[in-house]
């Protein structure tokens, strides 16, 4: 006790407030990423927004639900049928009970226009073997009120009656949605805490009440990050109270703003990492990158969400099957929620085969929950590798560009032994092929080849931590000042080419990475490069779920790329909250220290790196050995 108090005081004195506080660095012996809810694997289903916008009705939604069952998609796992924006009529005064647009949802009029209920609607979905989702916003008003849709299906009545979102009503609304109406899924948007500033278009003539924004566009430094996180946390708590059996999904939708890419994993089951997807290849790359570069921030229980699928529309329609397959395969392998957005009533043929490909779905739903990691990275081609629960692998080779590409796939990319016989099973054609060391794959423009992989692992008796990101949680990643991530593809903005173009939008730069430094460099310790390891800033704490391994091994030190070379770093390994090993302070340029720490019987291993400065460090070759 006394020792840790001194250590805490030391940290506070030495590091000021910018570095991670002692409480974040103190081992808890717990897995602290979100564990409530029913998201052991990424949620699958359909949402109304991409097809209907606010023009939703009972007839349309139940028609789609019926098609989801009849096409066989429900049996393949697509269970959630989610109402997005547009279901609300008004908030009844003075008791604040939400009312439904009964003209569009006739079964809701259980007691006339002022006593509506979605219970008959959710009952119908449940009887079909499906789950039901609903939508709200953190503020007083919604996104459709901020950006009126052309059909104008907006809430009606006085200013108060049109305040249909959660602000000031979190408990009341959440209880109504989950307990009384029987919904199983809630998506919570954030326009209400961004778009209703004093003097804004919406509040100017008293149309809507002012709510001082917590989110300032993409400006991280002006955004009240803690305030946004706290409101989402309040919603999570209300849902947990309403659904103590954990039968729910909480979808956080703050579009990558407010540094949510770092903390969404602690608050909800899925968390949007970017602005809205559109039916457009370039936009798809943007949304994909926002999640794909964050494998350590998605785990069973809380997944990175690059937005609902656009298969069926625009660049991903029946005339663009190559693109549709790429979009679907890449969402699947990075463990994105598979929430379809197209009109399933009209879905047939090859498009249906793509989203119904059971082998690709199985990768997404693999229970180990390891998001694929980047084994090769370039603007035009990427290779993603995912470790499955049975220890085998999957690989997706993704041609992002316009031209055909020849791609070398190597045993190293797969972290398989150099002398291994490797079998690839193509998940589209089901054909098998074999190679040793490397093979050449010919990819058409925008094509993705996706395979199951069988071969001898490079680390035969265990797993590198970078192979099992689903079991590694950066509880504290050492980022002191949130900064925009420059590595997310910048697409042409919504407003065409007016203005100066797209800028990096989302916080998260400098967060923990697999097989590279937090800033995307090759890991190198004392002059020795590593293709494997966890790169992370100092004053960080990683939680690792152990599943029977006896030994934790790593080579640790200050990374050669660190901008701040001034301060040494101490690396500590904890087992279920108890210190197991601690290095001497390691300085810049020093040879890495090899760790061999016994972890037999330990459930949660914690890896803590402390320093008086913010230093780039690495747990090189970090592994759990059986
Ligand atoms: C935001 C969300 C979308 C959708 C719309 C509804 O833009 O990001 O997914 O819910 O609002 O208005």
TrEMBL record:
Pfam families linked to this entry: Melibiase_2, Melibiase_C, NPCBM
All residue ranges annotated as the Glycosyl hydrolase family 98 putative carbohydrate-binding module domain in the record: 489-626
Biological process, per Gene Ontology: carbohydrate metabolic process
Gene3D superfamilies reported in the protein's UniProt record: Aldolase class I (3.20.20.70), Golgi alpha-mannosidase II (2.60.40.1180), NPCBM/NEW2 domain (2.60.120.1060)
EC id: 3.2.1.22
InterPro entries, alphabetized: Aldolase_TIM, Galactose-bd-like_sf, GH, Glyco_hyd_98_carb-bd, Glyco_hydro_27, Glyco_hydro_b, Melibiase_C, NPCBM_sf
Keywords: Disulfide bond, Glycosidase, Hydrolase, Signal
CDD domains assigned to the protein according to its UniProt record, in alphabetical order: GH27 (cd14792)
GO function term, MF aspect, one: alpha-galactosidase activity
Phosphoprotein recorded as keyword: no
Domain of life: Bacteria
Signal peptide: 1-20
Keyword Nucleotide-binding attributed: no
Enzyme class: hydrolase
Catalytic activity: Hydrolysis of terminal, non-reducing alpha-D-galactose residues in alpha-D-galactosides, including galactose oligosaccharides, galactomannans and galactolipids
SMART domains: NPCBM
Family to which the UniProt record says this protein belongs: Belongs to the glycosyl hydrolase 27 family.
The name this protein goes by in its record: Alpha-galactosidase
């Amino acid at each position: 006790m006394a020792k840790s108090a001194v250590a805490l005081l030391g940290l506070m004195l030495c590091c000021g407030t910018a570095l991670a506080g002692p409480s974040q660095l103190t081992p808890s012996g717990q897995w602290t990423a979100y564990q409530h809810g029913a998201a052991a694997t990424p949620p699958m289903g359909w949402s109304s927004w991409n097809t209907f916008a606010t023009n939703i009705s009972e007839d349309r939604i139940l028609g789609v639900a019926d098609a989801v069952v009849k096409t066989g998609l429900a049996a393949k796992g697509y269970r959630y049928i989610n109402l997005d924006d547009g279901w609300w009529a008004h908030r009844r005064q003075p008791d604040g009970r939400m009312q439904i647009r009964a003209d569009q949802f006739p079964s809701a009029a259980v007691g006339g226009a002022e006593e509506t209920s979605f219970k008959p609607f959710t009952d119908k979905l449940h009887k079909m073997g499906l789950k039901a989702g609903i939508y709200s916003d953190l503020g007083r008003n919604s996104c459709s009120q901020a950006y009126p849709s052309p059909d104008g299906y907006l809430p009606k009545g006085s200013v108060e009656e049109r305040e249909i979102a959660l602000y000031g009503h979190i408990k009341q609304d959440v209880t109504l949605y989950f307990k009384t109406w029987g919904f199983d899924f809630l998506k919570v948007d954030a326009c209400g805490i961004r778009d209703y500033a004093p003097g804004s278009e919406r509040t100017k003539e008293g149309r809507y009440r002012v709510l001082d924004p917590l989110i300032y566009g993409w400006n991280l430094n002006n955004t009240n990050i803690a305030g946004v996180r706290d409101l989402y946390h309040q919603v999570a708590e209300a849902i947990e109270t309403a659904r103590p059996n954990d039968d729910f999904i909480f979808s956080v939708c703050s579009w990558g703003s407010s540094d949510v890419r770092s903390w969404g994993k602690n608050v909800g089951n899925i968390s949007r990492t970017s602005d809205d997807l559109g039916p457009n290849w370039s936009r798809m790359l943007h949304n994909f990158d926002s999640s794909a570069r964050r494998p350590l921030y998605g785990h069973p229980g809380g997944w990175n969400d690059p937005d609902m699928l656009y298969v069926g529309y625009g660049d991903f329609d029946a005339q663009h099957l190559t693109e549709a397959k790429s979009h679907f395969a890449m969402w699947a392998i990075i463990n994105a929620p598979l929430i379809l957005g197209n009109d399933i009533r009209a879905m047939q043929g090859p498009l249906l085969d793509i989203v119904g490909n059971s082998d690709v779905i199985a990768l997404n739903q693999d229970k180990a929950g390891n998001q694929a990691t980047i084994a090769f990275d370039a603007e035009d081609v990427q290779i993603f590798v995912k470790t499955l629960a049975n220890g085998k692998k999957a690989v997706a080779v993704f041609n992002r560009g316009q031209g055909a590409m020849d791609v070398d796939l190597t045993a190293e990319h797969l972290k398989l032994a150099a002398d291994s016989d490797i079998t690839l099973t193509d998940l589209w054609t089901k054909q098998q092929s074999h190679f040793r060391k490397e093979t050449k794959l010919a990819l058409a423009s925008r094509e993705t080849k996706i395979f199951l992989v069988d071969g001898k692992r490079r680390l035969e008796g265990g797993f590198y931590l970078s192979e099992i990101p689903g079991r590694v949680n950066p509880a504290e990643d050492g980022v002191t000042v949130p900064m925009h991530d420059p590595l997310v593809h910048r697409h042409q903005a919504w407003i065409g080419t007016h203005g100066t173009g797209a800028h990096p939008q989302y916080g998260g730069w400098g967060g923990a990475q697999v097989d590279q430094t937090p800033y995307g460099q090759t890991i190198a310790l004392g002059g020795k490069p590593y293709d494997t390891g966890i790169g992370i800033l100092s004053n960080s704490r990683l939680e690792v779920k152990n599943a029977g391994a006896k030994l934790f091994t790593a080579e640790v030190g200050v990374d050669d790329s660190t901008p701040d070379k001034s301060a040494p770093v101490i690396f500590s390994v904890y087992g279920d909250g108890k210190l197991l090993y601690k290095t001497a302070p390691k300085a810049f340029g020093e040879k890495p220290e090899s760790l061999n720490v016994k972890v037999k019987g330990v459930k949660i291993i914690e890896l803590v790196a402390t320093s008086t400065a913010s230093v780039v460090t690495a747990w090189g070759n970090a592994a759990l050995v059986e």
